[in-house]
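Can you please make up a whole protein chain along with its backbone structure tokens because I've never seen that pairing?
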Amino acid sequence: MQKNTLAAIIFSAAFFLVFVLVLPQYDSIKTAKGALTTRRNLLAERTAAVNKIVEAQKQVQSRQADINKIKSFLPERKQIDEVVSSIQNISESSGMQLLGMITSAVPGIDDNRYKKILVGVDLIGQYPAFVNFLKLLEQSLRLYDVSEINAAASTTVPGNVNFTIKMNAYYLK
């Protein structure tokens, strides 16, 4: 009978030790494995995000020439002096005489991507030179959007035409 009692005591002690010592360690190991899995998933997501950023930076570097071209026809600021000089160069190259130019900001445009500058140009010259002016304007690096063209016979120089052009130049906000 003492054998059975001793066996029962040992079994009870073992059962007690399993619940007191082993199961809490098992639960903490199970929790740690869950946390490790969660952190591995988070690390994998962050690594993928970092890889995407690195890839985007590589694409930006490889396309820097294209980005510079875009910045030239849609600059980050107004650059009115550049608009005036480019219109003056285009008029001289085409054979037109530049009589005057007006620039002003276009009010009321609430586009989040870009703003407009209204450019009014008064020219005098012959019609073929004006067509050449429009072609050079179209080939210009800066983006111009011609919205209105008015023509009238010149009263000062016979055979010439006075042209008034209204157009928009764009820049980023």
The chain has a mean pLDDT of 85. The CA atoms of residues 150 and 164 lie 5 Å apart.
